[in-house]
Automatic annotation (TrEMBL):
Residues 208-274 form the J domain. It comes from the Bacteria. Keywords: Chaperone, Membrane, Transmembrane, Transmembrane helix. CDD domains: DnaJ, terB_like_DjlA. It comes from Natronospira elongata. It holds the Pfam family DnaJ. The gene is djlA. The keyword Chaperone applies. This is Co-chaperone DjlA. The lineage of its organism: Bacteria, Pseudomonadati, Pseudomonadota, Gammaproteobacteria, Natronospirales. PANTHER family: CO-CHAPERONE PROTEIN DJLA.
Amino acid sequence: MAESQANINDWWGKILGGGLGAVAAWPYWLLGVAIGLLVGHAFDRRQAVVTQFRAQGSDPARFPDTVFQVMGYLAKVDGRVSESEIAAARQAIGQLGLDEAGAERVKQCFNEGKQRGFPLDSALRRARKICGRRTDRARIFLELLAQIALADGTIRAAEQRVLESACFHLGFKRKELNQVIAIISAQQSRSSSHWQPKRPPPVNDVTTAYQVLGVNRQSSNDDIKRAYRRLMSQHHPDKLAARGLSQDMVKLSEEKTVEIRAAYDRIREARGMR
């Protein structure tokens, strides 16, 4: 059915062009049809190229390729790619649940992003098309970039600019970027060798807790509750699993909910909220 529809679409320009040519050139309708067919054929070819480009640009299967290209660019933007950034990229392969062939492909994409002259803006525009209205997918894209930027323990100015550009293209605000960075930082601190599982998650200072929830000290208690509920809904493992995310990404989401809940509890404690 889809193939027959595509074949029909391939002829629409010729049919309309021939018909209009016949009417416009009457009584020399044969000449009009010939000219109309040529114009229609050119129109059909252009539409076919546009349709193919749009299909490739919005294909969700290209999500891993595109994110790893941008990750490669981000890792290289400060001059060199560190071992910790390479380790973060390997971790992302596992988080996306890629098989052996997929892992080899995204490694190549990572190397492409590292090359001089890599078109970052084009890649980010493609990322926006791939994510479409799926804000959960766009947020995962941004979170994977943040993991690379924070792999060395701090975000340098050049890396910050890349993250802000990604936010712009993906439709996020600066506040949401700070929120993602705070959550990823808390996760990395919790998973370090200096943290023991029996201790509470390291969202100890209220400033970090506010950043995790994307609010501030001037926010009302109701605003804080709404921000907490919205974040918990966005990262709800059952919702993400239903949307087809891999088990590794669902597990990562579960870890994020730990940081979000810990931040909320810390703010409640500081404010005396019920």
